[in-house]
Amino acid sequence: MSIFDKITDWMDRMTEVSVRGVASTTGRRSFLARAGLGLVGAAVMPVLPFDRTFGGSGGMALAATADGDEFSCDYWRYCALDGNLCNSCGGTLTQCPPGSEVSKVSWVGTCRNPTDGKDYLVSYNDCCGRAECDNAPFCNANQGERPGYRMGLHNDINWCMANASQGYHCTVAVLVGIAE
Ligand code: ABN
């Protein structure tokens, strides 16, 4: 008898022993009911409303580390970000630091993700209501941006202008969609 035969033989015996154990302690009906419940549960799991943002404040979820260094101004999502990175000010890539609030208006840029080659719409929201966070990297990327006389296309603006507290703290970069 080969080693393989011995292993499968042993597995057969173990399976038989455990099935006999279950059969001797459990009624057939309750066993079927439990097995059915397990199958239904497994089928429903993927559609339950889990939080799939992985801690983000909204927008689309992407693995933050798989596609570059989000603490560097070279990170692809910052292609049109003009401001201080909130993730170096106690916030995250998408969430304002404690004590500041997200701007009601924002500048939306279009950046290409080098990992999948797709263009994404990125909302650059300023975080407002605290003094400027000036010990974070200050990024000034202007892809798709135009000078100040084209107001709607200009990104060098304090987006806290519509908030009650208009002091600029830092800027987050939230994915809001794929550019067609
Ligand atoms: N959107 C960042 C920013 C804030 C204040 C002034 C210019 C730019």
From TrEMBL:
Give the active-site positions.
Answer: 107, 126
Q: What does the record give as its pathway?
A: One-carbon metabolism; methylamine degradation; formaldehyde from methylamine: step 1/1
Q: Where is this protein localized, as stated in its record? A: Periplasm
What are this entry's molecular-function GO terms?
aliphatic amine dehydrogenase activity; methylamine dehydrogenase (amicyanin) activity
So where does this one cross the membrane?
none
Assigned protein family: Belongs to the aromatic amine dehydrogenase light chain family.
Protein's UniProt name: Methylamine dehydrogenase (amicyanin)
Q: Which species expresses this protein natively? A: Paenirhodobacter huangdaonensis
